[in-house]
Amino acid sequence: MPPRASGLSPRSRGRPRSQASEDAILDATAELLAACGYRAVTVDAIAARAGASKATIYRRWPTKENLVIAAIARSPVLVPPARGDLTEQLATTIAQFARYMQETPLGGVLPALVAERTHNPALADALASLTKLRRQPLADVLMAGMARGELPAGIDCEFAQDLLIGPVLQRIMVMGQRVDRRFINRVVRTVCSGLRASAGR
Amino acid sequence: MPPRASGLSPRSRGRPRSQASEDAILDATAELLAACGYRAVTVDAIAARAGASKATIYRRWPTKENLVIAAIARSPVLVPPARGDLTEQLATTIAQFARYMQETPLGGVLPALVAERTHNPALADALASLTKLRRQPLADVLMAGMARGELPAGIDCEFAQDLLIGPVLQRIMVMGQRVDRRFINRVVRTVCSGLRASAGR
Amino acid sequence: MPPRASGLSPRSRGRPRSQASEDAILDATAELLAACGYRAVTVDAIAARAGASKATIYRRWPTKENLVIAAIARSPVLVPPARGDLTEQLATTIAQFARYMQETPLGGVLPALVAERTHNPALADALASLTKLRRQPLADVLMAGMARGELPAGIDCEFAQDLLIGPVLQRIMVMGQRVDRRFINRVVRTVCSGLRASAGR
Amino acid sequence: MPPRASGLSPRSRGRPRSQASEDAILDATAELLAACGYRAVTVDAIAARAGASKATIYRRWPTKENLVIAAIARSPVLVPPARGDLTEQLATTIAQFARYMQETPLGGVLPALVAERTHNPALADALASLTKLRRQPLADVLMAGMARGELPAGIDCEFAQDLLIGPVLQRIMVMGQRVDRRFINRVVRTVCSGLRASAGR
DNA sequence: CAGTAATCGAGACGGTACGTCCCGTCTTTAT
DNA sequence: ATAAAGACGGGACGTACCGTCTCGATTACTG
After folding, report:
1. So what's the architecture of B86-197 in CATH?
2. Alpha helices (runs of H) in B51-105, residue ranges in sequence order
3. Would the pLDDT of B18 be above 80?
4. Backbone φ/ψ region at D125: left (φ over 0), alpha (ψ -120 to 50), beta
5. Of A72, C116, D4, D43, which residue has the fewest beta carbons closer than 10 angstroms?
6. Cα distance between residue B104 and residue B96, in whole Å
7. Yes or no, beta carbons of C191 and D195 under 8 Å apart
8. Protein footprint on strand F: which nucleotides are under 7 Å from a CB?
9. Are D186 and C162 in contact (CB under 8 A)?
């Protein structure tokens, strides 16, 4: 994430960085990611496609990993549906997430970033904030459901998210299988049943 | 997995491949994997440690990825406990799995392999069989539980495994957090409740 | 021979190639050539000694052979003596050439390059221009001798050079024997006699 | 040169070496040499073409170089013509040699062997005896010429051979040019003139 | 309006891993 | 003991990518 002059800062001297270059680089990264996958993408190729130089890239992001994170972080966040009961809202939100994992570069990129994280703490932070952003809509739906009484009040929201997303990610990432709406519906139904039953634990 | 002469095959001519070399290579791979992580491991280093030549390695496995898969495929399978009720057996099995993911090279390697799979179908097969092997003990415990009546009879076993393993993998791999026995117990309890409640669905 | 911007060319964009690297690489090549001989020289060793990377080497010369040619092409040309009669000047020039063949890497490298030429036309050109440069001083001495009347006017200069150098090279390269000043003197005397006698042919 | 059981030796025990294999190997070597040149020829390729195994090759010749020498050593020696005066006999003999250098593998192989000799003394001996064999017919013609009085009696025969062969080899090997009968005639005439003139030296 | 400083595209640089190739040796079974 | 087949250790080759650096050319702010 490039530090940019905030409103009141003295506006650093010299030629300002080009927003156009930055956009072109991020676009090129996302496109090549979708086309070739993480490992096959080359910083040189990104530079060539963006019409930028490698110096311009590395001035903004310290490594290829960080560039990739920035590129996928630009994709739109999930929009939780306003209508329907809890089960339906959850299923719809998760389906959006699943589609996103299966039809955009993210699906191929996420494991690569996860693999790198072990040896790259800085990347871990960036990845964490990205993940948190992705999970937020699901949390919102859960909170609303609790407020409406569709779930017991004491539910651990993080735990519930793990229960809901984990199986889907397991199918898509680890097993490499496609996930359809039926599978998602079953997950949501079973997990909600379990959460309600274990409430008074 | 190098094809080896089956019992009745005519024993292909020429000097047979050395089992000792193969073992040394796989051992060296596993050790270096544990010590350095996937990305930092070098084929040259593996060859040096194994006292083998690179040609001997590449004769058996076409790429570094395949070699790594073969190395981790040798690790012992999970041993489901014979005692305890369903909940306890499941939790113990999953805890073994979690420990394995968190304290052996597998944790660092799996995402890298998953990331490669998209662009490498041959690797996908190897990974699938590996995954299946890892999941088997959990399936056994579930079947036994159903036989004892601790779970309704009609449960989809694959689905149940996804529900149980998914949240754990989500925590470890995607979130990069450690998983303790308490978390596993909660997952098992909630999922089992859900499965029982949704049985007649 | 890397193509370099000529005086009026628009100065190609990007970072220019480092002359310092180029010199270091050629120096290292010549030194290692002298120390180990052609076959034992390694591109990695050259890179290490020059403090350069292999990419920097291969950017300039497509193969090890071409690099070696460039390295030996830098050695100083023969300096024909200003004094003495034709016979003495020829003998001195040839003795310089013989010493050069016997005491520098060239002696070991030339046959290797000659051997490669058959299957490598690009190398043939480089070798031809190198050879021509080496023979020039001898041609100069012969022309001067003809001008002074020490040789008949109609002598074919290329032919005379072959007669003079051929026997020396035959001894050094093919027979692997050392050549001393006495042998050279005999060659020069005999060939000059023959050229004078066959003049009116 | 493989040690072979002499007539009266006790005929070493075990299966005798196959002469057919040896011939096939030498034929394959010569053919591949002609087709690809020395450097591009592989011992594996020779073995495959000869239907032999590498062990069979290395049991007979210690290195690739020695094998190559053995292969080219089988080619027929030059046959000096019985008729004609000295000049014509020399020219014919040299023309045979030139044709041999230009139209058989020898031309491409000789420089490679010469290049190797520096770092391989054992090869030097083999090469020397080969060279001597090639030069013998020329020596015979010279001796006969001296006996007939066409050359002065005191001529150094080795020296004369260097003068005659050197220029031809220079043209063919070093310059990479073709040599025709006219060139050879000029060399012979000029050298003979020179030898006669310098006789009383 | 001239000076200064950071930016830009281009591409060379050191380093390092990859996967291929070849040599000469060794280990099988078959003859 | 030798044969064919082919695996073995060793080591060089040439390629590719990363992240850094050096050019000349822009492009804004500053004095």
Report:
1. Orthogonal Bundle (1.10)
2. 54-60, 64-73, 86-103
3. yes
4. alpha
5. D4
6. 12
7. no
8. 1-24, 26-30
9. no
Q: How far apart are CA D158 and CA D166, in angstroms?
A: 11
How far apart are the C-alpha atoms of D38 and D60, rounded to whole Å? 19
Q: Tell me, what amino acid is at A30?
A: A
B132-172 pLDDT tens trace: 888 999 999 999 999 999 999 989 999 999 999 999 999 99
Structure tokens that stand for A110 in this block: 């996420």
At residue B45, the 3 state secondary structure works out as helix
Q: D159, C186: Cβ pair inside 8 Å?
A: yes
Residue ranges of chain A that CATH labels 1.10.10.60: 15-73
Phi and psi, residue B126, nearest 5°: -55, -40
Residue in the block written with tokens 């084929």 = B43
One-letter amino acid identity for A116?
E
Q: Which range has the worst mean pLDDT, A19-28, B6-15, D165-174?
A: B6-15
Q: Which residues of C touch D39 (CB under 8 A)?
A: 115-116, 119
Per-residue pLDDT, D134: 85
Contact of C22 with C2, CB cutoff 8 Å: yes
Q: Each residue of C145-197: pLDDT tens digit?
A: 999 999 998 899 999 999 999 999 999 988 989 999 999 999 999 999 999 99
Task: Rank B103-117, B136-150, C2-16, D77-91 by mean pLDDT and report only the highest.
Answer: B136-150
All residues at 6 or more sequence positions from B59 whose CB lies less than 8 Å from its CB, including other chains:
B17
Residues of chain B with CATH 1.10.357.10: 86-197
**pLDDT of B58-108, one tens digit each?**
999 999 989 998 998 887 777 878 889 999 999 999 999 999 888 887 787
- Residue D110 CA, chain-centre distance (Å), reads 8
Alpha carbon distance D186, C198 (integer Å):
9
- Taking the CA of residue C153 and the nearest CA in chain D, the distance in Å comes to 16
Using a CB–CB cutoff of 8 Å, tell me whether B142 touches chain A. Answer: no
Are D and A close enough to touch, i.e. 3+ CB pairs under 8 angstroms? no
Kindly report the number of other CB atoms within 10 A of residue A96's CB atom: 18
Q: Say which residues have a Cβ less than 8 Å from residue A82's Cβ, sequence separation at least 6.
A: none
**With an 8 Å Cβ cutoff, are C169 and D169 in contact?**
yes
- The answer to whether D124 contacts C176, with C-beta atoms less than 8 Å apart, is yes
Q: Is residue B2's beta carbon less than 7 angstroms from any atom in nucleic acid strand F?
A: no
Task: Show which subunits contact C, needing at least 3 CB pairs below 8 angstroms.
Answer: D
What's phi and psi for D166, nearest 5 deg? -50, -55
Chain C residue numbers with beta carbons less than 8 Å from the beta carbon of D101 are: none
Q: How far is the CA of A56 from the C1' of F22 (A)?
A: 14
Q: Do chains C and B touch (3 or more CB pairs under 8 A)?
A: no
The answer to whether C116 and D39 have CB atoms below 8 angstroms apart is yes
Q: Are A173 and B131 in contact (CB under 8 A)?
A: no
State residue C172's pLDDT score: 92
CATH 1.10.10.60 for domain D15-73, yes or no, is yes
Q: Search chain D and give the residue with CA nearest C39.
A: D116
Query: CA nearest C37: which of B73, A151, D123, D114?
Result: D114
Give dist(CA B140, CA B142) in Å, integer.
Answer: 5
Contact between B198 and A189 using a beta-carbon 8 Å cutoff? yes
Q: How far is B63 from chain A (nearest CA, A)?
A: 14
Q: Residue B111 contacts by C-beta under 8 Å, 6 or more apart in sequence?
A: A111, A112, A114, A115, B173
**A69, A118, A164, A184: which to substitute to probe chain B, counting the most B Cβ within 10 Å?**
A118
How many Å does it take to go from CA D63 to C1' E24? 8
Interface with C, mutate which of D173, D178, D179 (most C CBs under 10 A): D173
